[in-house]
Design brief:
The protein has 151 residues and is of the alpha/beta class. It contains five helices and six strands. 30% of the residues lie in helices and 17% in strands.
Amino acid sequence: MLKNIDPALNADILYALRAMGHGDTLIVSDTNFPSDSIARQTTLGKLLRIDNVSAAQAIKAILSVMPLDTPLQPSAGRMEVVGAPSDLPPVQQEVQAEIDQAEGKPAPMYGIERFAFYEEAKKAYCVITTGENRFYGCFLFTKGVIPPENS
């Protein structure tokens, strides 16, 4: 155990989050996403897991240690609902609340069409699958920076 580190963040997850650089992306997926086959095509090349938690719980843990990119570009994306791209199902509403909490202000997610999401996922640094079993529990995050203390 480590102090002040969410226990959902296992050693493999912490390694990947630390190894990512500014502008790298990560995918957090639900149980229906083709996580393993997509993960094999990412920079890391293997699937990471945060089992037995919802997407919102996993994202809360991730955002407790990983900064999102600046407001100059979108840094949190969500898989759009097929046929209803502006709909936000409950799983996405829960994740939006965690993003807003981590950022300390509203930071709306942008939508990514389902098949475009798959293509973006292949370009990500890594894929982290969760225990989320609701549809559309798939998200893309862009890593930001932590500025020096005296800036």
